C-alpha cells in the first residue's frame, strides 16, 4: 500500500452466494469485528438483486455496495442483463468486470471487458477490472506479457480522468478459490508490472494514483503480508468475504503503517 498517493480498497466478491435476508446479520457481525477507524474503503460486490439491501445495511458502517458484472449495452432487448444506469440508479458505486469466472464460463474477451468498463465509467461507477494469468502461462513464463496485454486492452480508449475511477485487480487464475495464494513477492512483482504498463500509457502521476488490488485466496492469515507490499493497494476477496470475522481481519490489516 501507499496511502500517500492512492486509496486502499478492500472489496468482497460474494459471487453467487448468500441471500438478501443474510445481509443485515452479516453486516452486524462485520461491524462488531471491524476496527473503529480504518484506512481503507470497503465494498461488497453482491449479486445485483442484493445491492439495495447491502446499501441500506452498510450505510452506518460505511460499507459500499457493488455489482459483479454489467451489460455493455445502455438499454434494450437484452434479456437477463443489467445495465450500468440501472446499477447507478440503485446506488452501486463499484462493479467488477472481467472476472476470470466470467471470462471462462461466459466467454468474455478483452474487448468486451473494455466495453463494460467504459459503460460503467459513463455512469460514474468504478470498474474493478480483473486480470491474471493461468497456471500454464505462469509456468511458461508468460505472466507479465499476458497481464500487460490484458491491462492495455481493458483500458483502451479510457482517458486519464476516467482512469482515476478505475481499480485494477490482479487475480492469478490458479490462486482463485484454490487456497493457493501467490506469495507476497509474486503478487508484488505483477502489481508493480501493472503499474509500469499504466505509467507507459498515462505517465507517472496517473499511474501512481491507481489502486491495484490482489485477489486469489487472500484470507485473514495472509492479508497482512500481501498488503504490506508497496504496489498492492488492497484485495478482491472471494471465500473469506463470506465470513464476517475473517473479512473484518483483512480490513484491519490495512491499518498497518
Ligand atoms: P477467492 O476469490 O478469494 O475465493 O480466491 C477471489 C475472487 O475470485 O475474486
Coarse morphology:
globular
Radius of gyration: 17 Å
Low-confidence stretches: none
**Helix segment count?**
12
Quaternary state of the chains: single chain
- The level of helicity is 40-55%
Number of strands: 8
Description of the structure:
Helix 11 (223-227) links the parallel strand 7 (211-215) and strand 8 (234-237). The protein has twelve helices and eight strands. With 257 residues, the chain is an alpha/beta fold. It has helices spanning 23-33, 51-58, 84-90, 100-105, 110-122, 135-139, 143-155, 160-163, 184-202, 204-209, 223-227, 244-252; strands at residues 9-13, 41-45, 63-67, 94-97, 126-131, 167-170, 211-215, 234-237. Bound molecules: 2-phosphoglycolic acid. 2-phosphoglycolic acid is lined by residues 13, 171, 176-177, 215-218, 236-240. 2-phosphoglycolic acid binds next to strand 8.
Topology, pairings included?
Layout: E1 9-13, H1 23-33, E2 41-45, H2 51-58, E3 63-67, H3 84-90, E4 94-97, H4 100-105, H5 110-122, E5 126-131, H6 135-139, H7 143-155, H8 160-163, E6 167-170, H9 184-202, H10 204-209, E7 211-215, H11 223-227, E8 234-237, H12 244-252
Parallel strand pairs: 1-2, 1-8, 2-3, 3-4, 4-5, 5-6, 6-7, 7-8
Give a short synopsis of this structure.
With 257 residues, the protein is of the alpha/beta class.
What key attributes describe this structure?
single chain; 257 residues; alpha/beta; eight-stranded parallel barrel; globular; binds 2-phosphoglycolic acid
